[in-house]
Amino acid sequence: MDWQIAERICIILVANLIFYSKSLCYKYTSDDLAVYKRGYDKNLPKYKKLFRNLIGSIRIFPQLDHFVTIWIHALVCVFIYLAFGATDISFLAALLFAFNPATNQGSVWIAGRGYVYPTLFALMSLTIPILSPLFLFAGGYWHLGYIIPLVFLFSNIKWVLLFMPFIWYFWYKKMRKSVTEKMNRDMFGEDKKIKPQKLILFTKTFGFYFMLCLIPFKNTFYHSFLQSAAGNEIMKRRAYAFDRFFFMGVAVISFVLLNYIYNPDRQFAFCLMWYTVGILPFCNMFRMSQEIAERYMYLPCAGLMMALAIVLHSYPVLVGAFIAMYATKMWFYMDAYTDDYYLIENACLNSPDSWFAWHIRAMKRWDSQSFREAIILWVMAKNISPKEFKILFNIATALRVMRNEKEANEYLCEAEKNIPEGQEQQVGELIRGFRQGKSTILL
Hints:
Blueprint: H1 3-19, H2 31-38, H3 46-55, H4 62-83, H5 88-99, H6 104-107, H7 113-127, H8 132-139, H9 164-186, H10 189-192, H11 198-214, H12 233-239, H13 244-262, H14 266-279, H15 298-312, H16 316-333, H17 340-350, H18 355-367, H19 371-384, H20 389-401, H21 405-416, H22 424-435
């Protein structure tokens, strides 16, 4: 390794450590809290405790966990520089990625490590091809690592795919369990359907993520775009409608395909395919989790930032403009992770048209027994999505607790009219329980 490479690695590491150091003061948020409250066996050997903390299956204390998160993100940036050739362009790509707000759920949010580690192992595979089977095996621990090897179909080390059947076989049971749990818990009937109209959702999602990676026009923990696409008729019609993101998606998909077929710059084409393979599982053709979440952009963003660096490197003014734009937006947005309360308040401010953000805000009030405030916030959510079963049912339960039985029954009847397709059995049990006097709140 020559001195210039070592110097640039140090610059990348120091830039990340300094920039994200203020996150060391942040507390646990969202899924981090659930993991922390679950606790862990205090008698674990130190090496097991360290390993589980590194992979994110236990939380010890916030400062340590944020410190680890900063270092892992910094390592991803280092390997972007190395994996794409340790050149001036890949150095620029590493800096663009380091500060890009699209990476916030991997660079700041502790629970986002399930998307950071597979990205790191994929980049390490490109950097040290001879060890790529070991790196891809390690990445297979996370469900995203099951998809990443497909990137190598478009690389110069296609031979690594020969090892993938063995790696997939080894992790198959874990992957199958994870997918089955998500399907049973999160999927509605509409999500399971395969039909031509799903191409509209796919195209819109593909374009939305591409533009959000390039231009941070809206960063929030709960996006309103495509919300409840499978949940109720109002939102479904809106999701399947043609809008600017559909046409952006058509343009982006055409751009990616034409570049792969005709562009002689194979590295640029490969970077676009990296983005494509990375984002494909989250394009709502077969939804198993949130319709839109910024953590899904972490892996694709690595390839896209390299493609952007290839375009920008000859234009210093544009380089400065993009880095300044990314760093400024990320610097102020990362404060959303200060604590769980502020994360939800920030989501409602940044995405006031997201019914789920208001719903989570109501849940926090409910948990603190501020029942009247919770009802007000659920009504805010209902105004955004009037036919949302979860909201209608929760309002009915809250009204019962407030001893307003007549209005509670009216909301229950309204909820019955809007049962999501595919959820009839589970919902039927909840409604029977309500009529038997049980008070249940749905997250």
